[in-house]
Amino acid sequence: MKNTAHQNSITGAAGEYLILSNLLRLNLTAGKVPDNTKHLDIMCFNKNRTAASLIQVKTTMKKESKSNWMFHKKHETPIKNLFFCFVRMQADSSKNEIYVIDSETVAHVAKMSHQIFLKIPGLKGQKHNDSDVRKLHRNHKSILGKLSLKEATAHLTKSELEFLDKYSEGWLDQYRDAWYLLENYNI
Question: CATH number of the domain at 4-102, please?
Answer without folding.
Answer: 3.40.1350
